[in-house]
Every structure is written in C-alpha cells, then in structure tokens.
Design a protein that fits this description.
By secondary structure, the chain is an alpha/beta fold. It has a single domain (2-14, 26-367), classed as Glycosidases (TIM Barrel, Alpha-Beta Barrel). 36% of the residues lie in helices and 14% in strands. It has an eight-stranded parallel barrel with strand order 1-4-5-6-7-8-9-10, surrounded by four helices. It has a two-stranded antiparallel ribbon with strand order 2-3. Helix 6 (187-206) links the parallel strand 6 and strand 7 (215-220).
Length: 371
C-alpha cells in the first residue's frame, strides 16, 4: 500500500500538463484543513475589491467555501502600521475570525510576534517589547498570547490550530530569540529561542478550558528541504518543545520540485509521526511579473494559466494526501484574495490569487476541495 501510494503521488508530479487532472486514488483525510490565508480580505474589500462566482458578486469566504475550502488562516501582528495590507491588529483579526467561524469554517491563527511581516529573514521584536530582558519577554509573550486567545474565545472564534511564530527557521523575536547570530547556531541561542517558543505555547494552553480543542503548529519554511526540516524538528524534540502539527511552506519557484516536497513529507512523517500541513503555497495563473520564476523555478512544471494553476494544486493536494499513515493534514493557499485594487500594493500583481482580474473565482479554488 505504501509503495502504491508513492507511485500515485509520483504520477501526479511527473505526468501533469495543461489538460491533466490529478488522480483520485489518494485523497486527503476528511479532517484535513484546506483553504487559504485570507488575512488581507477585509482591507481589500475596504479598498473596493469585489469577488465573484460566475459573474455574481458575493462574499469571498462564501465563494471559497462553496468551492471546497473548509478552513482559513489569519495572521496577527502586535501593533501594525496600517500601511497597505499590514493591518492585522487584534480588533481587525477578531472581526475577520468571526466571519470565518460564522461561515462554518475552521480557523488557523498565525502569531507573527512582530509589528510587521515575520519570515526567515525578518523576525523583528515588536517596538513596545524591544527593550525587555529575556525573562520579561517570556512573560510578555505568554501573557499577550493568552490574552489574544481569551478575546477570540469571547468572540466565539476560538482557533482550531494556532501557529506560534511564522517561518521560524532562524528563530523569532530577534535579537533575543535569534539563531545564527554568529554564523552558527549555539546552545545559548537555542535555549533562548525555545524558551520564548515555550512561553508562546503556554500562553495558548493557559487560555483553554476543559473541552477546548486547539492544536499547536510549528512552521518551517523550506518544504522541499528534508535535511533542513530534520535539523529544525530534531532540535524541537531535543529542547522539549511541545507541539501537535508541522507546518511547511512550499513555493515551487523557491523550494524545488514537487518530488522534493514529497520526499520531505515522507521523511518527516516517518521520523516524527506528526500531522503535516503545507501551510503556504501558491502558483501563478498568468505570467506577467512572474516570467523569470515560471522559466527558472525547479517546481514550475505547469503553465501559468488558469488550468495550469489548477493542475499544480491538484498535484500538490495528491502529493500531500500520499503522506504515510494519513499524516498529510492539509494545504493552505497563500493570499487567495489578492486581487488588484486601487491604492494597495498587491504581491504578484494579482497573478497568484484564486480570482481573476474581474474578481471571478478561478478553477484552482475547486482543487482545494476536501474529499
């Protein structure tokens, strides 16, 4: 059965082209989290963005739900500056979280622990916390996290999954929680980083009552890198960091071919026995602005067309579904609502979202459907 599953996944990767469709043999579990990170949705709506399904205007969440999404991720900044789409403070996030829950969808909350974007190259401590000592920062992180969770719970929007930190390959809350400060990770750096990570996790769990079900996710960015993933999660085990779900980013123009992701999924699921979600991915439906990536990226095996985008996502879902022991637990599209609107910078110029230039939903939205 394991060999047959692997062959099906490889067929999905190797044989895809413009008119191909993913095989139906391997399917995600019914409990899988499938959907998108829609953190900019309210901001885009405020700027005049309109979403459509068959030319009929409607709510983007409802449209994506109708095409099979069952969950949505929302990022949270501590004190954002409200420029472009850097608007995700707590009131904004609570309001959007309530919409997600009202639509009957699952919620994944993504703590950035920063006032702005956090990723492997940027993990800037919030300005209000910048002068704190390590002990004080730990207490602040724990208290802040618990307070956020309590407010979401009061709003009827308790997350199903909480991501503590965003793409934390190089640590978080720099400089105290930074790895590779001197060019190589050290015992002191790992102690400080994991102390902050554990404080965040305590904050989530401090807020829960008996019967509350919230899973903790740790997010590593290099989904096509088995060695890097093992390095990071071996350290999580060695330092006793408690977590439930592994989150991986997989951008095919940066992170290798689909077979590289598949190899990592198999190795990671086998080594740690944890559920794995590809928690960030995207693919262009047109080439403008992305031609060099379409040409040069190792994973860019599909045309940059609406059907090519759908075929990519069908193959990705099939690859994740083939993860051993049912540990392929979901796929989250990055920024599906990223349509162009006046006055806002939109990453990719709208070429990476799940809606076209008129706001009409694209075929790839249906490829996310949970079986």
């Amino acid at each position: 059965m394991r060999a047959r599953t692997l062959l099906v996944g490889l067929a999905a990767v190797v044989g895809c082209h413009e008119s191909s469709s993913a095989p139906n043999v391997v399917r995600l579990p019914s409990t899988a989290f499938v959907g998108g990170d829609i953190s900019a949705l309210a901001r885009i709506e405020q700027a005049g963005g309109v979403f459509r399904d068959g030319s009929q205007a409607g709510d983007a969440i409802a449209i994506l739900r109708a095409h099979g999404s069952n969950g949505f991720r929302l990022r949270l900044f501590v004190n954002p500056n409200d420029s472009d789409v850097v608007v995700n403070d707590l009131p904004y996030t609570v309001a959007l979280a309530r919409r997600v829950k009202a639509a009957g969808a699952k919620l994944l909350l993504d703590f950035h622990y920063s006032d702005t974007w956090a990723d492997p190259g940027h993990q800037t401590t919030p300005a209000a916390w910048a002068s704190l000592t390590l002990d004080s920062l730990e207490r602040t992180v724990e208290t802040y996290t618990a307070g956020v969770m309590a407010q979401l719970k009061r709003a009827g929007a308790l997350p199903d999954i909480v991501q503590v930190g965003n793409e934390i390959d190089s640590g978080m809350l720099w400089p105290l929680g930074e790895l590779y400060v001197t060019g190589a990770d050290t015992l002191t750096e790992w102690n400080q980083f994991t102390a902050l990570l554990k404080a965040a996790i305590r904050g989530v769990r401090d807020s829960l009552a008996p019967g509350d079900s919230v899973r903790i996710m740790l997010h590593y960015s290099l989904g096509g890198n088995s060695g890097g993933t093992q390095w990071f999660f071996d350290h999580m085990g060695a330092y006793g960091v408690p977590y439930d779900v592994i989150g991986l980013s997989y951008y095919p123009f940066w992170h290798g071919a689909m077979v590289d992701l598949q190899s990592n999924l198999w190795a990671t699921a086998t080594r740690y026995g944890k559920d794995i979600v590809v928690v960030e991915t995207t693919y262009p439906w047109r080439t403008d602005g992305w031609q060099s990536m379409v040409t040069n990226g190792a994973g860019m095996s599909w045309p940059a067309t609406p059907q090519g985008q759908a075929s990519y996502l069908q193959s990705l879902v099939t690859t994740v579904a083939g993860t051993p022991n049912g540990h392929g637990a979901g796929v989250v599209w990055w920024y599906p609502e990223a349509i162009e609107v006046p006055g806002l910078f939109i990453w990719g110029g709208g070429s990476l979202c799940l809606f076209d230039t008129t706001g009409n939903v694209l075929p790839a939205a249906s490829a996310l459907a949970a079986p």
